[in-house]
Amino acid sequence: MNSLAEVVNAVQSRQRWVVTSHARPDGDAVGSVLGCVQILRAMGKLADGYLGDGVPFIYRHLPGADAIRLGPIDASQYDGVVILECDSLYRTRLKGLDGLFSVSIDHHNTSAEYADVNYVVSSAASASELVYRMAKAAAVGITPEIATSLYAAVLTDTGSFCYTGTNEQTFAFAREMVLAGADPVAIAQQVYFSNPASKMHLLGRALSNLQCEDGISWMHVSEADMLASGATEQDCEGLVNWALGIHGIEATAFFRETAGCQFRVSLRSKGRIDVARIAELFGGGGHSCASGHAMEGPYDSVSARVLAELRHALQLTAP
Ligand SMILES: [Mn+2]
User: Fold this and answer.
1) Structural domain tally of the chain?
2) Spacing, Cα 205 to ligand 1 middle (Å)
3) Distance from C-alpha of 317 to C-alpha of 319, rounded to nearest angstrom
């Protein structure tokens, strides 16, 4: 892994930057990209933010969100790319990045060192904390706009400071952001109390098929559920957490049908089992407490394969 100084040097020595993150961006992806764009500009660089799937509804109020581009990228217009929160270029689902000098900043413990410069710190609770470290190392002052984006990122990536990995460092970072002008109440209201109604209708459908068994819970939404709720892909974000918040449940799986017999699987754990390892078995990845992957097959066989792995992991870690 490279040092923070090497990251700053790499940025200083090139002028025109793409800043991007993974497809189906979450709050950390959006907030870290927006903050990083502002920080690079404060370093005197040209910087443009790209997200292949655009900015989800609940993050559109963040400063600069309306200037995020969808791609494809014209590599001749840039000298490098900062990739946040990705274990490969492929995760961005953006075309045009291949030839560019690349800097990877990530906090996933499954992250590979695929870029020219790699700064991966799995102890950080959000990628935004690492973006902040870069700003400090480059002596960039944190404006209220940067603070707002980076705070929204850590707020959402820690599940409002609840998930495993949240520690005093996380609160110290959040405090810095509030001191720099982030308004925690306004940000929380925009992110958590501004859901489209379709998301709540979809949640109702998911909860109506919730199942629990010996420490594991699971639920699913079908294409028909999506249609009946008027829901979009981004309405699925976070639904998985509802099935984890049950007494005695250690891990949960959320299955979403994306097309006939194609599923997105989200896994969550309270900490006893490592769900990143399970997602990796199916070609995905993530954190020990939050991971995801894609699978093919009828729902019954897809869910049976995932639940078998969860049961196995629970047995191995039985107290
Ligand atoms: Mn993250």
Assistant:
1) 2
2) 27
3) 6
